Amino acid sequence: MKQKLILNMEETQVNFLLDHEKYGFKNEEEMIQFALEKLQSELDIKELEASADLYAELYEEDTELQELTETACIDFKEI
Question: CA–CA separation, 46 vs 55, rounded Å?
Answer without folding.
Answer: 14
